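We store chain and fold; example below:
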Amino acid sequence: MRWQSLLVLSAAAVSVASCARPARRSRLGAEPGLRVGLSINATAVVIEGEGGVEAKRDGRVAFRTNDGADVRVVAQGDRIRVTGGPGAGVYEVLTFRGRSGQRTVGADGRRYRGMVQIRANDGSLTVVNTVDVESYLRGVVATELGNRGRDDMEALKAQAVASRTYALRNRGKFASRGFDVMASVADQAYGGMSAENSAADAAVQRTEGEVITYAGELIDVFFHSTCGGATAWPTEVFQSLTEPPYLRSVSDRNGGGYYCDISPNFRWTVRWSQAELQEILARTLPSVLGIDPDEVRRVRSLRAYRTGRSGRVVELRVGVTGGEIPVAGPNIRAVLRTPGGRMLASTAVRFSTTTEGGRTTFVASGGGWGHGVGMCQWGAVGRSRAGQRYRQILAHYFPGTRIERRN
């Protein structure tokens, strides 16, 4: 592919590094349970429940197990097979619930509230947890922000309201695949009951039903770990034709510092030897951008060709033998992997090159972690510790919005 053509194509590509992508518009109203995709490519899964499990097929009980008995499910084409035990056999779909008072069910060692449904498609299993939204949030807030202390409660509450809004706004995003949202950072991280803690539970309970709206509609919620000093404009990071008024770059400055400078990823540096960078880019440029591997010959330079309004790099140029390969902002983090294999922490970065003893080292010096759009989670923690309330935190990161209680 010629690099001039690549420049046009790469500008339209999107790299998903954290939660939150726009979905269909939703209005407030009564909401059914949420279907969370726990796994979409598993070949086998082990189900267990305290007190045993109950498996249903077409709404009727197919079999039950006693306490301590696991159910192993494997894919068999477009059907599932239960191996061993009272339920041994082949099924189209099975839905599992725990038989104890809490009715929790385990899937591959992690416990979930609600039900777990398993179906197969073309030799792989889709595992879905159906759970009420408030219970889902207990497993999200605890996973996204971890086990926090009393001073962080307002940040936890801000996360609870943001995550609730995200879940309801994105309901049905993967309807064709049998679930609403994924349990990973492709949507928002969800650890189920196994991740829950008392502080996150309290934050969810104290904000029950509250969502963020703009002009009466649920907003598109974005959040990330650390902004590094200022959040990003959506068009710097994602493929987007419009920028809602409530998604804009805002400063995280706090006097002489920043609210998010308590983050371990507030500032960072990555170094590559020439051989390391060559090996990484020879692999990532073809896989991410679809270019011919033969075009990635001898990497000579990294150059921030264009920066956006927040200072993030929106176009990187990789100098190679014969010219430069352009990499648009949405793809930069996926292309520039660290020597350890992790994607670049953020696009708020500067590049430099040093040569010593005939050896060239490429250096990326940056700030923040994640895409940078919307709420800065470490910034929210810093604001909470400074005495800000959750409504104030959300109003800063999503200007012009309101917090309303769902009907």
In short: The longest helix spans residues 153-169. The chain has nine helices and 26 strands.
